[in-house]
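Have a close read of this protein, sequence plus structure tokens, and explain what the tokens say about the fold. Thanks in advance:
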Amino acid sequence: MKEDYEDFKEGLKTTSLFGGVQIFKIFISIINAKFVALLLGPTGMGISGLLGSTTGLIGAATNLGLSTSAVRDVSQSYAAGDKYHFSRTVSIFRRLVWGTGLLGLLVCLVLSPFWSNLTFGNYDYTLAFAFLSITFLLGQISSGQGVVLQGTRNFKMMAKSGIIGSVLGLFTGIPLFYIWGNEGIVPAMLLSSITGLLLTTYYARKVKTDKVDLSPKEVLREGKTMLSLGFFISVQSFLNILCAYLVRIYIGRSGSIEDVGLYNSGFNVINTYVGMVFTAMATEYFPRLSSYGNDEKKFVNAINQQMELSFLLLSPLIAAFLVLGELAIIILYSTKFLGATFMIAFGVFGIFLKAPGWCLGFAFLAKGDSKLFFINELCVEIYFLLFNILFFHLWGLNGLGLSFMVNYLLYYIQCTIVCHKRYNYNIDISVLHFFAPQFLISLIILLIVILLPSTYKYTIGFPLVALSTYLSYRELQRRFNVTAYIRSKMNIFHK
């Protein structure tokens, strides 16, 4: 692997930036959840959750995955340095966004009685879905503006938009809930969409583009690549939601509703508090990898460097969560959820196996191989469904954590084989040097958590967490002067 770590440094800076944004958003969401629970109660939270899940399903079916697929086209045209080509790409994308946004609006508005009856078993929420239909257009336009910022690597603007949006959502939603109670849920969702659009539009306008006249035929013809890849992303997203739904149905019928609750809460912890690192990394990684789509050496090197960065950032977090997982469950939920402890432990450890497959999975999107991406992800959904059902049948909730590990091990093997044949990808030996010691440390902690009393978990676990943190810090310091970078950021507060 080349010794030039400029991309590694940029990836680390952006990940730290968006990692901070994710932590801030989680903090805001916790505060918001507490106020919603107090002001609306369980019924109001249930209504809000059902409205959100239904609109999410409609969005997955109608947005055609453009907010993901278009990042590749925008980043490549921007990297090429041709302003006219870049402006043309952005103009095509924005027209497509309007089209899919209007599609979502119409599907929600025209079928609002159907969605009300499907979701709540009555037609009392027909008007609510009719009003929420506008959020599909506003949300799609807003996500489109975000793609322009991401594709041009204006990450600081994205971060500012995300932070301000979270704060505004908190301070506008709570007064509505206080004044109108459950009746304020829909206005709060509408207001959140409006403020999100205003913020992204404000920042996206700072990216200068030329006005380009395009006919509808030109938009469809030249936007074919975005639509094709986006369509498969949209279908894959829908299948992912469907498979997760079927797993929950099976758990509820073969086990109990309590098992479903433990499963949901457990993987919510994993995806939110550990998975935030993936969210932060994806913001910078995807457009960077896309910009190297025509350079095989840089493309492969970018994947390997991202694996290095993933292991270095995630390893201490995984080790710490294994030691403190039980405490985290009590703080975030209550002692009633401790039945999910081992399932969460297996799932958190499985992040080690998810990380390399996650890095490779972006290769299909970056190359624009829409059909290959879909086939690859379809295989994942099939064995995700089968292994979850089988392992729950054999080992209950703990089996779901084991299934998570097995699924991502198979996914990594599958992606490695396909990327090797398709893109001539080979893992660099240095990646394994980072992976092996960190994997061993967390494996020891996992075994202690499962097999030994809690006292050993803390007396042996904390020194191992410290060792994992030291190993990651040492490697980060060698590639990028982390200490100097942190000091430079802290000096801002002293000026």
